[in-house]
């Protein structure tokens, strides 16, 4: 939105917040109002639709710290009540000028279509006075179209879709180019004509002594064109509020909270001006199998004791086809094995690794044959001299040897040497 229009609207009042409100307060106020005024909740209510547009415009400025600062500075200068009088000096606000028979204009009218780059008296006087101070004024330049505001949306994806990448549609209800006039603002079958007063520049220049002044053309209000037959659906603005579907391409490896920018998919500009951008914040759901650490995938693999002791090759899931992971004999519980190139795809090419953590699964109940076999193994283990707690907590060798399975009340105590 042009600075000239900023001074004519109180964005803080539109959102119902004070001028010193925090960014969080502005965000909360906008979400509340947008939810209440959304066209989907108020079908056919033109007042709610117009209010929704004004609230969206206010949020697009106040939610951006740079735009908000520029807006506040512009409002402060406008609040001084200054204007240019008919003689080229500063006069009282609202009094008509008499140069060339044209109407006077407010101090705010000198701001026009500068995008987000104008601000402060330096930029102000660059547009009013020629740099060299010569009597001849600068040649009018074509007015710049007012780019539409940026929009924000949110999207929730499953873990695997976010990791591998996906194209998914989202639905937006926002100001968009009018489908009847295709954004031109003119009634179908007609077209805007070049303003004869400013020759399409949007500016008129006049000399006052040693100075040359440029001001928005009063006939076309600085747009450079005149619409004789406005489009009935958008009233000549080229913009209507409608619901549309946008396909969002999510790149592989997107992280939770990451923002995706879709150029030109934001709010439409006035009268065919470029649209703003759409920023989509991605939220990623947790997965039942995988977790993520940077570009690596982590998975916990349940294994039996014998697989760790004797070694085995176990099938492990990945984001694509399962792979066989070799467990070396004597692998301790909790060790992490690495499978190269089976992790999260990287934007630079390749992929991270798959980290497989082995975890012993203990049976809750054994049948008679399994219990007898396990007791036999324990006897063989003790006979070999293996002590799982050797050196642990300062225990001496044999002092905390394995207990005899199936023993009575003394089963939890240390076993007798040579038993």
From TrEMBL:
- Give yes or no: UniProt keyword Zinc-finger: yes
What note about domains is in the entry?
Answer: The J domain is necessary and sufficient to stimulate DnaK ATPase activity. Zinc center 1 plays an important role in the autonomous, DnaK-independent chaperone activity of DnaJ. Zinc center 2 is essential for interaction with DnaK and for DnaJ activity.
By sequence similarity, the record places it as follows: Belongs to the DnaJ family.
Domain (CR-type): residue spans on this chain: 165-243
Binding residue positions for Zn(2+) 2: 195, 198, 217, 220
Question: Which keywords does this chain's UniProt record carry?
Answer: Chaperone, Cytoplasm, DNA replication, Metal-binding, Repeat, Stress response, Zinc, Zinc-finger
Q: Which HAMAP family match?
A: DnaJ
Identify the cofactor(s).
Zn(2+)
Biased composition range(s): Basic and acidic residues: 33-56, 65-74
Q: How is the cofactor bound?
A: Binds 2 Zn(2+) ions per monomer.
Q: Where is the composition biased (Low complexity)?
A: 400-419
Q: What is this protein called?
A: Chaperone protein DnaJ
J domain residues are 10-75
Is Kinase given among the entry's keywords? no
Q: Which subcellular locations apply to this protein?
A: Cytoplasm
Q: Which residues bind Zn(2+) 1?
A: 178, 181, 231, 234
Protein's job: Participates actively in the response to hyperosmotic and heat shock by preventing the aggregation of stress-denatured proteins and by disaggregating proteins, also in an autonomous, DnaK-independent fashion. Unfolded proteins bind initially to DnaJ; upon interaction with the DnaJ-bound protein, DnaK hydrolyzes its bound ATP, resulting in the formation of a stable complex. GrpE releases ADP from DnaK; ATP binding to DnaK triggers the release of the substrate protein, thus completing the reaction cycle.
> Which residue ranges are recorded for the region named Disordered?
33-74, 131-152, 382-419
- Gene3D superfamilies noted in UniProt: DnaJ domain, Heat shock protein DnaJ, cysteine-rich domain, Urease metallochaperone UreE, N-terminal domain
